[in-house]
Design a protein that fits this description.
By secondary structure, the protein is α+β, with helices and mostly antiparallel strands. The protein has four helices and twelve strands.
């Protein structure tokens, strides 16, 4: 009898053959996808912002240009009126300046003038710096004067100019509002005296409470001190209507405070004629 074949260990088990593959339906048309939404452009927004900036910046630039013109003309007028070597610094406050010019009055104006001279009059004192704040500034039709409804000012006076005007060397004293004066004597001696400064009528600086603090008070020294402090010092080229209110001493000189209403600035040829001044409120454009 034939012997059965032994199963070979590496032989794969029998799998019946299936001639049919699984059916996959064929779709010739791809699945429909809706078109992507169009991207929003930023150009309209950018254009709107640019137009807004244009509407804001152009009027500001035009107004600033007008302000510069007004400030330049005012500086020249103040220079002529106060006889300064250089035009003062002028700044017009408030926006728009065009509306102020059209109304004929500048609301707030700051002026800083340097080196206001004194003439040859005895006991006249130059002003190193004058800082003015003017409210309600108008000018006349003939351009010969300007007037402020009210004004405040601070004048700075150096000890060098004060010494030259008094004829004796002065410096800051030890007490509030005190000046120290030194008079040189023969043989190397000197006399030191102190005095109090105060505001006097007519925009003048008066001296009182005179006291000798060091050195022998001889006849010549006494005569020098009497001549120096007997008469008040007068501040010149201060605008009409400003009145000296107080004086304080500093490290470098005196600080004088002024205030007033209806403060007037005159052209040089009309400085002595205030009665016939025309105060029409028209300003140059």
């Amino acid at each position: 009898m034939p012997q059965p074949h032994q199963h070979e260990p590496n032989q794969q088990p029998y799998e019946p053959y299936d001639p049919y593959e699984p059916y996959e339906p064929y779709d010739a048309q791809p699945a429909y996808e809706p078109p992507a939404a169009p991207r929003r452009t930023r150009r309209p927004a950018v254009a709107a912002v640019a137009l807004l900036l244009l509407l804001v910046l152009v009027p500001v630039a035009v107004d600033r240009f007008l302000a510069v013109q007004v400030e330049s003309r005012a500086a020249k007028a103040f220079q002529q009126g106060m006889h300064t070597p250089l035009p003062p610094e002028v700044h017009v406050h408030g926006f728009p300046v065009l509306a102020q010019v059209a109304a004929g009055s500048l609301r707030d104006v700051d002026v800083t003038a340097h080196d206001i001279p004194a003439d040859d009059t005895t006991s006249a004192l130059p002003v190193s710096e004058l800082s003015l704040h003017l409210a309600g500034l108008t000018k006349s039709d003939d351009d010969r004067q300007a007037r402020a409804r009210s004004a405040r000012a601070t004048a700075r006076l150096t000890y060098t100019d004060i010494s030259d005007a008094l004829g004796v060397a002065v410096s800051r004293g030890s007490g509030p509002g005190r000046l120290k004066a030194t008079v040189a004597l023969p043989l190397g001696n000197s006399v030191t005296a102190t005095t109090t400064v105060s505001a006097a009528a007519g925009n003048r600086i008066a001296f009182k409470d005179f006291e000798v603090t060091a050195g022998p008070l001889s006849g010549p020294a006494d005569a020098v001190l009497d001549k120096a402090f007997d008469q008040p010092l007068r501040l010149q080229n201060i605008p009409d209507g400003l009145h000296l209110r107080s004086i304080t001493t500093t490290e470098t000189g005196l600080s004088a405070y002024f205030s007033g209403t209806s403060v007037t600035f005159h052209a040089p040829d009309t400085a002595q004629n205030t009665a016939t001044a025309n105060t029409s409120s028209r300003l140059p454009t």
